[in-house]
């Protein structure tokens, strides 16, 4: 169970993906939850080893874009999978409602400044895609403005990819019933009560609008150098397996290499031995 | 074993701490390594719970400054303790040789931009203190310039503290023999060979200069709102215990509180139940 899942959640090119008929639930090859958790843990160990090499190699970088409806598990999958790497080589960027300064720039300005430098992993919790999702659904800018953004996004991602940034984009797909169950379960968890918000309702009224907006994103912004993956996320443990497996496969395909030592190891050894002997005598 | 260590590694005020006579090795109250590791794991669990509250409260922030000689374990303690929190609420900033843009500003400019916003934890791997350490030891600026920096640092940290940023500063203290042993052990680890560097030698020649420079830092920049802690770090598992315990005590003293819910929970529950029933019927 240490190989990647090799289950393909990639959004196909050339035909429109329908979220309504795309499964939100899956269990994969796992007999039970424990087996799945073991698989995720093993993937994470391998991810950590590859991240070390990526960090040291300092030539390539990895950008993981995470989008999902409320309660689909963005925070959970960051805490349990994506963020389980050495924090020195990884940053999570959460994009919320733009600040005044951010709004005074083009929509990609705040995003660009968070692109991962060589050797690093950036995880985007929400992203530039909100500018063709929440912005579109709520008519925050004129249609002709957000319509042009798909091409701007494609050009932006092509530039990153050209600079050795590997990009993967993950959509966590949950059913409306599961989403409602999760909202409801928050009512029984006092430590989540601060999260309760009437605007969750208006967002649910827009459920169909979001579905269409996501489908257009998948249709228009899905090149091979920045592919979308739709992960069935009703089942939390399967979601974690699928994301861990995808992250592992991605890092494996990047194949980062440790640099050659810059010194003659055996010569250094003699110097150390001498120094150590002297220091111990003191 | 779930209480903090309550062992005080705080650098005393009013008298000069001598690193030469300050212990580099300790085992604390632990019978063995396993007991110590269990203690660290329990601390981390509590740290994670408190971080959740800090993140949600969004009023206070925590800045942890980490300084140490090479091979003293900065990377290890970040990977195993300080960085073991939800990455959405925490960022590690590694300060290396300043870039051209950074050098064209005052020495605190690049540091200030990495100060933690409300709700967040910033971990500094090296920091503004390098500007009175490596800079001083290597005469990178005139003495009258670095001499003035102690006061600039104090004023800078006072401003952060005044804006609800809790600051703790950690020095990992290892013996020269242990340091040399660790340099040597890297020779037998091929995955560390890229790290080998002749400049490790010149740095060791400056061992005494660094000792003096650190002692002056501890004497001049150690107010109650930004205290220094000297952690015995020859023993890796004790180092982790001590740092975990210090981080836990610090978060406990900050006492972050979950905000009150902004809605009437029971009213929301009715709305959810109705919505859920409707969605299930569809």
Structure description:
Two copies of one chain form a homodimer. The first copy, chain A, has a five-stranded parallel beta sheet with strand order 2-3-1-4-5, sandwiched between helices. The model of chain A has no long low-confidence stretch (mean pLDDT 92). In chain A, helix 1 packs parallel to helix 10. The first copy, chain A, contains eleven helices and five strands. By secondary structure, chain A is of the alpha/beta class. Chains A and B meet through helix 2, strand 2, helix 7 and helix 11 of A and helix 2, strand 2, helix 7 and helix 11 of B.
In short:
The first copy, chain A, is an alpha/beta fold.
Quickly list its features:
homodimer; 282 residues; alpha/beta; five-stranded parallel β-sheet; 5 strands; 11% strand; globular
Task: Note the topology.
2 copies of one chain form a homodimer.
Chain A (H helix, E strand, L loop, with lengths): L32 H25 L3 E7 L6 H9 L7 E5 L5 H4 L5 H4 L8 E5 L8 H4 L5 H20 L2 E9 L2 H11 L12 H7 L1 H14 L7 E5 L3 H19 L10 H17 L1
Parallel strand pairs in A: 1-3, 1-4, 2-3, 4-5
Helix pairs in contact in A: 1-10, 2-10
Strand content of chain A: 5-15%
Number of strands of chain A: 5
Strands in their spatial order, largest beta sheet of chain A: 2-3-1-4-5
Average the pLDDT over all residues of chain A and give the rounded result: 92
Low-confidence spans of chain A: pLDDT under 50, at least 5 residues? Answer: none
Radius of gyration of chain A: 22 Å
Mass-distribution shape of chain A: globular
Number of helices of chain A: 11
Helix and strand pattern of chain A: HEHEHHEHHEHHHEHH
Main structural class of chain A: alpha/beta
Please name the two chains that share the biggest interface, counting residues whose Cβ lies under 8 Å from a Cβ on the partner chain: A-B, 47 and 47 residues
Taking the alpha carbons of the first and last residues of chain A, their distance comes to 53 Å
Helix amount of chain A: 40-55%
- State the major sheet of chain A: 5 strands, parallel
Quaternary structure type: homodimer
């Amino acid at each position: 169970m240490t190989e990647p899942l090799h289950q393909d959640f990639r959004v196909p090119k050339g035909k429109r993906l329908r979220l309504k008929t795309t499964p939100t639930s899956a269990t994969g090859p796992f007999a039970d939850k424990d087996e799945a958790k073991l698989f995720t843990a093993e993937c994470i160990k391998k991810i950590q080893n590859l991240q070390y090499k990526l960090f040291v190699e300092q030539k390539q970088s990895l950008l993981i874009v995470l989008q999902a409806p409320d309660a689909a598990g963005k925070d959970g999958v960051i805490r349990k999978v994506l963020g389980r790497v050495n924090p020195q080589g990884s940053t999570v960027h959460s994009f919320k409602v733009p600040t005044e300064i951010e709004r005074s720039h083009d929509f990609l300005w705040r995003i660009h400044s968070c692109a991962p430098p060589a050797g690093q992993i950036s995880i985007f919790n929400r992203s530039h895609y909100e500018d063709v999702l929440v912005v579109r659904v709520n008519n925050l800018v004129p249609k002709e403005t957000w319509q042009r953004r798909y091409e701007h996004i494609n050009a932006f991602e092509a530039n990153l990819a050209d600079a050795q940034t590997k990009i993967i984009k993950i959509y966590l797909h949950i059913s409306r019933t599961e989403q409602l169950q999760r909202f409801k379960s928050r009512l029984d968890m006092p430590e989540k009560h601060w999260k309760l918000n009437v605007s969750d309702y208006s967002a649910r009224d827009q459920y169909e609008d979001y579905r269409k907006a996501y489908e257009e994103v998948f249709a228009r912004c899905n090149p091979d150098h920045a592919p979308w993956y739709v992960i069935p996320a009703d089942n939390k443990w399967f979601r974690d397996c699928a994301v861990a497996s995808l992250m592992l496969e991605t890092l494996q395909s990047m194949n980062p290499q440790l640099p050659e030592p810059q010194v003659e190891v055996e010569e250094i050894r003699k110097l150390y031995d001498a120094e150590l002997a002297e220091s111990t005598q003191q």
